[in-house]
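Q: Structure tokens for this one, please.
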Amino acid sequence: MTATFKVACVQSRATPDHARSVAEALDLAAQAVGAGAQLIGLPEAFDCLVPTREELLDYVRPEDSHAAVLACAAFARSHAVWLLAGSVSVLAEHGRPANRSLLFAPDGNVAARYDKIHMFDVDLPNGDTFRESDFYEAGRRAVVTPLPWGNLGLSICYDVRFPYLHRALAANGAAVIAAPAAFSSMTGPLHWEPLLRARAIETGCFVVAPAQCGHHYGARRSHGHSLIVDPWGRVLAEAGDEPGFVTADLDLAEVARFRAAIPSLAPDRTFAIESAA
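A: Here is the predicted structure, written as tokens:
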């Protein structure tokens, strides 16, 4: 067993046409397999993006009858690779839709599940309004799961703005953090790369961030620029504005080297806050 492996970020463009969205994402994943990728990440909501809750409710299914979930399981099994379905809109066990990340092992079985914790409820300066909590039930559980090379921590898109989640993943053994996204084209040029690089540096983890790109429906667009970042904050690979994929070789020994040089996880302290009079 080796601590070095090749990871790929697929950058795709989902629309309300869920069958086409899944097919296009998995076609890019197949190309990434051909490039030698052993772990392939798909973006957030790679399977479907719709403008209304009614359309979402018409689309979602439980995992065991969800077309996108079944397609991902079959892909992982047929290609014998690890596949991270960045997120899929599923009908969760509590009866409401969840924005769920699913990690598939090479045998096609689900190795880990993570429901997005932080909902994207914002009013952007350009007039765009998003209320993700109107669509999904927020998750309540952080997830770190083993891979053959080291531990993977799971997050989704808006989670990237909450450093404490990522530090908790690192403190619980994560060496790589996945951050699949459909990041807004308005905030993306300013915030996407700095946030991901900061999360890598703060945690001493590799950050693997497959992203959506382009026009989805109406005025909704995603930034693209999928990134793979090392623990020092260096960008190892970056996609552009169009669908495609990027790869990088991750040497997990670099995590230990960074944390030995800058041991910023260990000194966490509790402290009181005083308000000035």
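A few notes: The longest strand covers residues 82-91. Helices lie at 18-34, 53-59, 67-79, 163-171, 188-203, 253-261.
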